[in-house]
Design a protein that fits this description.
Elements (H helix, E strand, L loop, with lengths): L5 H13 L3 H16 L4 H21 L10 H17 L4 H23 L4 H21 L1 H4 L24 H22 L2 H11 L1 H6 L4 H27 L9 H14 L5 H20 L4 H34 L7
Length: 336
Amino acid sequence: MNAPSLESRIRTSLTLSRRWSPFESLFWLFALAAFFIFPRQLLILNEIAILALFAISLDLILGYAGIVSLGHAAFLGFGAYGAGLLALHVTADPIAGLGFAIVISAALGLVTSPLILRGNDLTRLMVTLGIASLLHELANSLGKWTGGADGLQGITMQPVLGRFEFDLLGKTAYLYSLAVLFILFVIARRIVHSPFGLSLRAIRDNQLRAAASGVPPGWRLAAIYSLAAAYAGAAGALMAQTTQFVSLDALAFHRSADLMLVLIIGGTGYLYGGIIGAIAFKFLQDWIAALTPQYWQFWIGLLLVVFVLGGREVIYGGVGAVARRIRSLAPGGRRP
């Protein structure tokens, strides 16, 4: 019998990687169950869902394509203002606003993608930071439309799908954000476990070798950059619709910096890293702020430094050991 070809082995590997593990199913079931388990924390859970989607958008370009960015908040704020202005002047339908934010943010990503295709990582950092700064100043100067420093106010959203009204407790907001996060996560998961996703990893590891192997990096990088911008715009739309307010803070530098910290905590190159990092970052921020309202930023900075210098390896090593132990005790598993 002939050995399977390289192409068939790759297809088999991709098919296996697309399968959902029991741990993944349990993760999303718990995210849904959190609606009933933590009824008083739905507002922060909604923030976590939005931040997780935002983190996934950056992981698509950083973890899978090797594109570093310190201005990813440009797409978050662009999508937020787009959804807010649409709600004020055209239609307050949440789905329409979400779609509009995705389209305009993807278009912005496509237009600006040639700027990040050339140069090294330092060049990309400065270019992305410059784009975010330009949009921040543009939003500030167009105060007649954006509200300037006072923010975009007076946003009132219609019920989601015409049935579910937004409430002060965040019930509709969390379920809405979680549904959008899950749908876009499934799409991203399908993309990264496709031949296109494999080509992105080849470009990330060695762009010259990938080009020599017949993988043109130009349009692939532009495509994933535009997709990441669309995801960030969707996160911005969710933020604008669930809070019914948009300010210049959505375009601020600290948004991009916090996003990098989220991926440092959760890890890059696998989509769950952004979600895990968002959960850890938000709860850590909320817990420390409650303990020390005046110095919470100091303690968060200190913990992050310790985490980056060695804590992550200890935590991940312990989690990996527990996971291996569970697998070994499972039916059919190998017992030590």
